[in-house]
Specification:
Helices cover 48% and strands 15% of the residues. It contains twelve helices and nine strands. Strand 8 and strand 9 form a beta hairpin.
């Protein structure tokens, strides 16, 4: 499995830096070049560059210039303007990420999530599987705050409030002009775990019901009775950026670090696991009924 630990999410080689965003963009250009049946030297000619530069671009070692992306897309036969614009958006975000201009860079409490937030900011779709928590994009401020209070990592109340603010900014994507598409599959245990007390959980589940009514938010619950399932090992997010055949990136949280799964083959495997678990879950309407029933149980 091709994975990158958080310590290596942004790695250096001389004056060059490889970032998740650049590797994601480089992987897309490599996919397009392979589909066009062209070699690195042939691609280099259109840029008046060397094959070594194309190799560095495809591995995410150098920032991308917009004219280079446009020229390569034209050479590779990528005529979809929307797809090209998404690649340009990734390149712009990567340049800003390197120069620390993204809003998350000014939020030190983004912590290990900083690189993920950068990816999510330009994603078109997120599939999230959670066993013990309500997904961050769907959390209320009080729920987020209660989670932080229970974690010894967060000692300073001001730090906790900044964390809550960061999570709130992420949620703006749900209601933006081009809203993020979210498919959340949540294990029943996460709905019953009394984070912050009955009042906080009741409000959290009511909020989850409101979001589930939005056209871009798809919520399913995996009930206890489902038994064993493909995603039983742990939670993860599958982040998608462009057309259906584009390479997804998988984000996996483990204690104290983050893992990125960046290879096309492995990301497809995670997506299949997610889809199989979703098929084992309750239908959206039945999921809403269960969430509402659990919510009522907190009204005591």
């Amino acid at each position: 499995m091709e994975v990158v630990q958080v310590a290596a999410v942004q790695t250096s080689l001389g004056n060059r830096v490889s970032t998740v965003l650049a590797r994601r963009l480089g992987g897309e250009l490599l996919r397009l070049r392979d589909a066009a049946g062209l070699t690195q030297p042939q691609a280099a000619q259109v840029l008046s560059a060397t094959a070594a530069k194309i190799a560095k671009m495809e591995r995410g070692w150098v920032p991308f210039r917009d004219p280079d992306i446009v020229a390569l897309c034209k050479l590779y036969g990528q005529t979809d303007e929307a797809a090209v614009n998404r690649l340009l958006a990734l390149a712009k975000l990567d340049r800003e990420r390197r120069k620390a201009k993204g809003w998350w860079q000014h939020s030190p409490d983004a912590g290990l999530m900083a690189e993920y937030i950068a990816m999510e900011d330009v994603a078109t779709r997120v599939r999230t599987w959670q066993l013990s928590l309500i997904p961050g994009l769907l959390q209320t401020s009080d729920y987020t705050r209660s989670l932080a209070v229970s974690d010894e990592y967060w000692q300073d109340p001001d730090d906790i409030e900044r964390l809550v603010a960061v999570r709130g900014k992420r949620q703006h994507r749900l209601r933006s002009e081009v809203p993020l598409q979210v498919h959340a599959v949540i294990w029943e245990a996460a709905l019953r775990q009394e984070v912050g007390g009955a009042k906080v959980m009741g409000a959290q589940l009511a909020h989850l019901l409101e979001l589930a009514a939005m056209p871009n938010v798809h919520v399913q619950v995996l009930p206890f009775r489902a038994g064993g399932h493909p995603c039983i090992v742990g939670p993860f997010n599958v982040v998608s950026f462009a057309e259906a055949e584009a390479i997804d990136v998988v984000h996996v949280d483990v204690i104290g670090s983050t893992v990125w799964v960046e290879s096309g083959e492995e990301s497809v495997q995670y997506r299949r696991y997610f889809d199989r678990t979703a098929r084992m879950s309750l239908a959206p309407r039945d999921s809403i009924d269960l969430i509402d029933s659990i919510r009522k149980g907190f009204q005591r």
